[in-house]
Amino acid sequence: MSKVFRTFEDYKKHPKYQECLDEWSEMFVQNVFEIMKIMGLQDTSVSVIDACNPNITLPTLKKYKKSKWNYDYIDYVLSCNPNITWEFIKANPRKDWNYWRLSRNPNITWEIIQANPGKDWNYKSLSGNPNITWDIVRANPGEDWDYHWLSSNPNITWDIVEANPDKPWNYEFLSENPNITWEIVKANPGKPWNYASLSTKPSITWEIVKENPGKPWDYPHLSLNPNITWEIVRDNPFPDPNNPSVTWNYRWLSSNPNITWEIVKANPDKRWNYKYLSRDPKITWDIVKANPDKPWDYESLSENPNITWDIVQDNPFPDPNNPLVTWNYVTLSKNPNITWEIVKANPDKPWNFKNLDLKKEREKYIIDCLNEDRYNARKALMPTTNVKLNTAKSTEKVLSNKPLMRDIMAYLGGRKTRGKKITKKGKTFKRLKI
Q1: In angstroms, rounded to a whole number, what is the distance separating the alpha carbons of residues 180 and 178?
Q2: What rounded mean pLDDT belongs to the chain?
Q3: For a tag site, which of 25, 54, 234, 381 has the least CB within 10 Å?
Q4: Is 408 exposed, middle or buried (0-12, 13-18, 19+ CB in 10 A)?
Q5: How many Å apart are CA 319 and CA 151, to the nearest integer?
Q6: How far is CA 140 from CA 137, 143, 152, in A?
Q7: What pLDDT, on the 0 to 100 scale, is given for residue 1?
Q8: b/e per residue 317-340 (b: at least 16 CB within 10 A)
């Protein structure tokens, strides 16, 4: 019986996961280069593809490092790629790797660093690596650890800080550490806590703020806190009892998850920030259309997950007050509704390949790849270097391919059709390579 996968994280544990991700990466790069040709761009345009892009895997980089990439640039930025491994770095020892970036990469463990003492590891950057524990720091006191980054490292607890008062802990960064609670702050009033950072923490409630009026709460940052509701804002227009001129910050409040369009619409006198509101998932295209008098920010709206490609196509000039305003393709490329089919069908658009994440499509591709009942049909349909962006021609090849059509029918119908005949009047089928 096949294993049941409940989350995408489960699929990542599949032994064929990396193979499927590598296939996706190959397809991603081939599609990018194909579209680049149509756009009149050169394959070596390093501004088009970012090596940090999660769609890029190591075999793809290795395959195209001589002909498709400016590798001096790639070596510099590749260190931030979540798919980078130490094995790949070892296989390319002459490259100008950026060890500041590499030292922070979560794929770099302390065991790797210990086994390679001759490398130019950056201990300041390493201090922010989630693999670094206090035991490692304590066992290596001669290294140049950065206590700014260590203070925010989630492996650092208050017990560790208390037990090592001689260390130069940074309380601004420590205030951001998820292990720091209000109980800890309250029990240590003499420490230089950063109340701007504390004010945004989900563990800080309005009750805590009210019960501690003598603390230097930062009300602009508190406006972002998810515990601050509209009722709290409405009932406490001047929240600081020590300074009656202090009000809530509506710029940051516009990003507060508790703020809805109904609240904004009912309070037009407030200084809402429409740049932040425009990217809010609670803002729909219907809301935008119904309120043309509002100063919507179309750059931010372009990445709003409620904006679909159909909306973009049907409204090429979305601002009724300014016919020169168009959708912003830099941010639209981040939109989760943008798929490869959309990009390939519109090569004349100024897509930003650095921002093209395709997370949902990438995950679906990998899930289909790992589903044994669908694998053959999925792989048969996978674009290769032999398939150009000619949909009609590719479709004819697929329809003419008898064994392939059998697999596709099994894929679509969720049942096996192997051994059954597929006929077409007056046609003799021949297996074609696609």
Answers
A1: 6
A2: 82
A3: 234
A4: buried
A5: 46
A6: 5, 6, 19
A7: 44
A8: ebbeeeeeebbbbebbbbbebbeb
pLDDT at 434 over 50: no
Query: At 297, which amino acid appears?
Result: D
Q: Is residue 79 pLDDT above 70, yes or no?
A: no
Q: Which run of H or of E encompasses 386?
A: none
How many CA atoms lie less than 13 Å away from 35 in the CB half-sphere?
A: 22
Residues of the chain with pLDDT > 70: what percent?
Answer: 76
Q: What are phi and psi of 304, to 5 degrees?
A: -65, 130
Q: What are phi and psi of 432, to 5 degrees?
A: -110, 150
CA dihedral 219, 221, 225, 229 (to 10 degrees): 40
Name the residue with higher pLDDT: 69 or 347.
347
User: How far apart, in Å, are the Cα atoms of 141 and each of 69, 160, 252, 314, 366?
Assistant: 41, 15, 42, 62, 44
Vertex 433 angle, CA 432 and 434, to 5°: 110
The DSSP result for 7-51, as a single string, is: SHHHHHTSTTHHHHHHHHHHHHHHHHHHHHHHHT--TT-TTT--T
d(CA 20, CA 27): 11
> How far apart are the two ends of the chain, measured CA to CA in Å?
33
- Cα separation of 353 and 210, whole Å? 48
- The two three-digit tokens of residue 149, written as one number: 């980054």
pLDDT for residue 360: 86
What is the pLDDT at residue 32? 83
